[in-house]
Every structure is written in C-alpha cells, then in structure tokens.
C-alpha cells in the first residue's frame, strides 16, 4: 500500500515538478502580453532587402542604413533578403536590371563616373547609370548573413524572428541553401509547422515557440523544397502580399500574391520611377514609415484581411519614422 501511495503521490506532484523544471517565457518579443498570442496574430516590422545597407545617397541599390544587428535591436522581427549565385557561392544582391552588363559590381554612382572603361556616350545615358547603380552589387554571402542572425538569436533568447528569402533563380535547395543554413548552425532554431498548419491557423503562441527553442520561421517565396529542407516554408502557403515597387504613397490595398485567407504582409516601401526603373525613395523614408502612413495602409487592407491587422509590415529605412510605435498600436500595446 505504501508503494502505491508513493507512486500516486509522485504522479500528483509530476505536473508541478515539470512546471518547475521547464522554464516558461514571461516576456516575448519585448512584451509579456505577446507570450499568449498565436504567431499569426502578432504584427511584426520587417526590413525589406535587409542586407542592402549603405548611407551613401548615390548608392541606388541600398534599402537600409543600419546593420542587421542594429535593425534587430531597433525591433525589426522580419528580415527579407534575396540571394543569387556568384560562382558557387550564394551572395546577397538585388536581381540585376542589367543582366546583359555582365558582372557589374559598382558600389555607387560615383564609382561608375570614375571608371574609365566606358566611353562618354555610355556615360551620357542616364538609364545606363541608374541600371548599373541599382544592379548587381554583392553584399556578402548568405552564410555570413545567417551567422549574424544566429548570433543575435543566441544573445536574445526571448525573441521570435522571421526570415523571408527570395529565390527567383530557382537555385537548388539541397546544393546551396541547405549547406548555408547548416554551416551557419542556425537550423536548430527553425520552426517546422505540422501539416495541419495553413495560413493563419494552427500556429503556436510566441511563448510556446520560445519555450521549445524553435523561434525562427523561414519562408521562401518560390522554389522551396520541404522534402529536402522542411524548415524552409513555401511563403504563399501561409502569406499573402500587397503589391510591391509601389510609387503611390497612399498604398492602395489589393491582393498581389497569395490568397487573402493567409497572413498578410503589406509591402510598405515607396519607390521612385526613374526612366522606367523603380528606385527606393530614401527622401520619403520618415514619412512613409510614420505611424499615420503605416496605420492607414493597415486599415486600408482590413476588408481583404478578415478585419485583422497585418502580420508583417515590410519597410525600407527601418531606422526612420515610427514603425515600432505603429506595430505596438496594431498589437494593442501601450
């Protein structure tokens, strides 16, 4: 009888023992209130072309002023990037508007003007200069980028982060992407949803993701392969987007990619159309990223998003404006 009582007593105590043994997140992404929120029911500020960093106003291919670590420390919780092969290495860079101008890798307009290999007639073409500046500048390897992200996750154990990767060139997942993730030692943090997860449904809370240590969600827009890398999720199974490369500062809302039953990402970055080429509008950064502009865009999408706030707000120049204030408002935080 004593043995039975002892076993029953231990069984009764085991939930308490487990609770004491398992740490529970009490602050998630900076706020206790977010720990009980479903991942899809939180608004995150995202950095568009997060790797394209330069304060030189003549660098027309830049989208951000501050480093990846600085962006994350500001409160950015989605990093968008794109990579293309340079030799056998996945390098971060824009898709070139000038693919026929083989391997141009100028840092800025000033470097082009100083280069002597092009004749004066070429230099007199404004379209050439814009294409070259907004073209194929390499910004470092994907592996190095992921290593930086991993170091930040190591140092910030109560944060859930999302990566959105563009793979428009259909680069092999197994040959190039998996080695980059493996060598960066970041796969341990990735979240792999069950098959029942779709769109906004089936996601864990931020607290659950933090407690499990799987607090990095990775989406790829096209050409993912979950049979090879189950942690790289096909974006449009879960997310819908508004149009990008927008030149209208009112940001009219419509479904551009994905289906509106999914999580919404608003592409809230403004471009200038110069000779038919879309260039990031650095001068409008503070206004575009103002609380008023972001909230107006979010409210304009309510009818297409089942009355919900956007899950992701993607921005250029994340250090300008009041994006975090806007996100806090959308999250119902003071």
Q: How would you explain this protein's 3D organization?
A:
This protein has 334 residues and is an alpha/beta fold. Helix content is 30%, strand content 15%. The chain has eleven helices and eleven strands. The protein has helices at 2-21, 68-74, 109-114, 120-123, 126-133, 142-155, 173-183, 206-212, 285-288, 291-300, 323-330, and strands at 44-47, 78-86, 89-92, 161-166, 216-220, 232-234, 239-241, 263-267, 271-274, 277-280, 312-315. The strands form two sheets. Strands 1, 2, 3, 4, 5, 6, 7, 8 and 11 form a nine-stranded mixed β-sheet that branches. Strands 9-10 form a two-stranded antiparallel sheet.
Keywords:
334 residues; alpha/beta; nine-stranded mixed β-sheet; two-stranded antiparallel sheet; 11 helices; disordered N terminus
Strand content: 15-25%
> Which stretches are low in confidence, meaning pLDDT under 50 for 5 or more residues running?
1-21, 96-125, 127-135
Overall morphology:
globular
Structural class: alpha/beta
Mean pLDDT: 85
The helix tally amounts to 11
**Rounded Rg:** 22 Å
Number of strands: 11
Largest sheet: 9 strands, mixed
**Terminal-residue CA separation:** 57 Å
Helicity range: 25-40%
Element order: H for helix, E for strand: HEHEEHHHHEHHEEEEEEHHEH
Kindly summarize this structure in a few lines.
It is built from 11 helices and 11 strands. The chain is an alpha/beta fold. Strands 1, 2, 3, 4, 5, 6, 7, 8 and 11 form a 9-stranded mixed β-sheet that branches.
């Amino acid at each position: 009888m004593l043995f039975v009582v002892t076993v029953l007593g231990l069984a009764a105590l085991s939930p308490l023992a487990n609770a004491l043994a398992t740490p529970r997140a009490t602050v998630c992404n900076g706020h206790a209130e977010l720990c009980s929120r479903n991942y899809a029911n939180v608004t995150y500020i995202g950095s568009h072309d997060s790797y394209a960093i330069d304060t030189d106003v003549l660098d027309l291919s830049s989208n951000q002023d501050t480093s990846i670590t600085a962006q994350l420390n500001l409160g950015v919780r989605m990093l968008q990037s794109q990579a293309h092969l340079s030799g056998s290495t996945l390098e971060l860079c824009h898709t070139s508007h000038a693919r026929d101008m083989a391997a141009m890798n100028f840092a800025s307009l000033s470097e082009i003007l100083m280069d002597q290999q092009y004749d004066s007639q070429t230099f007199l073409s404004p379209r050439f200069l814009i294409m070259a500046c907004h073209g194929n500048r390499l910004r470092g390897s994907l592996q190095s980028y992921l290593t930086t992200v991993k170091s930040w996750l190591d140092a910030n154990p109560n944060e859930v982060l999302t990566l959105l990767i563009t793979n428009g060139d259909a680069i092999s997942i197994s040959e190039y992407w998996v080695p980059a993730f493996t060598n960066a030692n970041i796969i341990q943090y990735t979240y792999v949803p069950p098959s029942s997860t779709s769109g906004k449904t089936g996601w864990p809370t931020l607290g659950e993701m933090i407690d499990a240590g799987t607090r990095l969600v990775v989406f790829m827009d096209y050409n993912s392969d979950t049979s090879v890398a189950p942690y790289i999720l096909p974006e449009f199974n879960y997310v819908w987007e508004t149009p990008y490369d927008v030149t209208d500062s009112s940001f009219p809302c419509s479904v551009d990619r994905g289906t509106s039953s999914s999580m919404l990402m608003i592409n809230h970055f403004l471009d200038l159309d110069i000779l038919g080429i879309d260039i990031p509008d650095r001068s409008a950064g503070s206004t575009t990223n103002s609380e008023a502009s972001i909230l107006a865009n979010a409210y304009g999408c309510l009818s297409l998003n089942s009355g919900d706030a956007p899950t992701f707000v993607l921005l250029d120049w994340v250090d300008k404006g009041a994006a975090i204030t806007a996100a806090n408002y959308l999250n119902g935080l003071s």
